[in-house]
Design a protein that fits this description.
alpha/beta
Length: 187
């Protein structure tokens, strides 16, 4: 059986987690690995280990440990749910997954910024996962400012075996069906 590695790409409140959970229900033998869960776990139980500034290396290490375990010790399809907006990091992870026999799929959430802003303002989501920003509006502003600077760029054709772009919520069901079909074709 060919295993899939589905990686979400997008700004805060673009629907990555909702998509990942819906896909997990439709894609047999799959698991969502959501970096926000790791951030919340660390914040709840290991707050003193969190860096005061700079990259959250412990969160990344925890995520990588879970990904490695899932790759090497299970036969699950992986749904990697985090922003994945940095091209260099995305390509490095995709290369690792390709070397382990996975078919890669990128799902880029490309919602207009005004839609994301509206979602952020209406959000009831807990801010406990935030380390540097005090709210998701700050996160969105930072992400908007980072877009197309350095290596923070949208995925392009050829980065993965498949690329799907979701520009509005109506496209989600269709993309889930296409991914499930990829898994069935690979069996």
């Amino acid at each position: 059986m060919s295993r899939l590695a589905i990686m979400t790409v997008g700004k805060t409140h673009s629907g990555k987690t909702t998509f990942a959970k819906a896909l997990e229900k439709e894609l047999p033998n799959s698991i969502v690995i959501d970096q926000d869960n790791h951030a919340e776990f660390l914040h709840t139980y290991y707050q003193t280990l969190l860096p005061k500034q700079g990259n959250n290396m412990i969160k990344y290490a925890l995520t990588q440990t879970i990904v490695n375990y899932a790759v090497n010790e299970t036969n699950c399809h992986l749904i990697l749910c985090n922003s994945n907006r940095n091209r260099k990091g995305r390509l490095k992870l995709l290369e690792h997954l390709h070397h382990n026999g996975f078919t890669s799929i990128l799902v880029n959430f490309d919602f207009p910024d005004h839609v994301l802003k509206e979602r952020v303002l209406k959000s009831q989501r807990s801010t406990t996962i935030l380390r540097v920003a005090s709210n998701f509006e700050e996160v969105l502003t930072r992400q908007q400012d980072e877009t197309d600077l350095g290596d923070v760029i949208a995925p392009i054709e050829g980065e993965a075996d498949h690329l799907f772009v979701i520009e509005n919520a109506d496209e989600i069901r269709s993309v889930i069906r296409k991914i499930v079909n990829c898994a069935q074709v690979g069996e």
